[in-house]
Amino acid sequence: MPPLLQQYDVLVFPSIWEEPLARMVQEAMATGVVVVGTTTGGTREILVEGETGLTFEPEDAAALARRVEELSNDRALMARLAQNARSKVTRQFDIRHTVDEIEEHLAEVASMRPHRVARPGRSSMEGAGAEPESVVHG
Question: Most exposed: 9, 70, 85, 129, by fewest CB within 10 Å?
Answer without folding.
Answer: 129
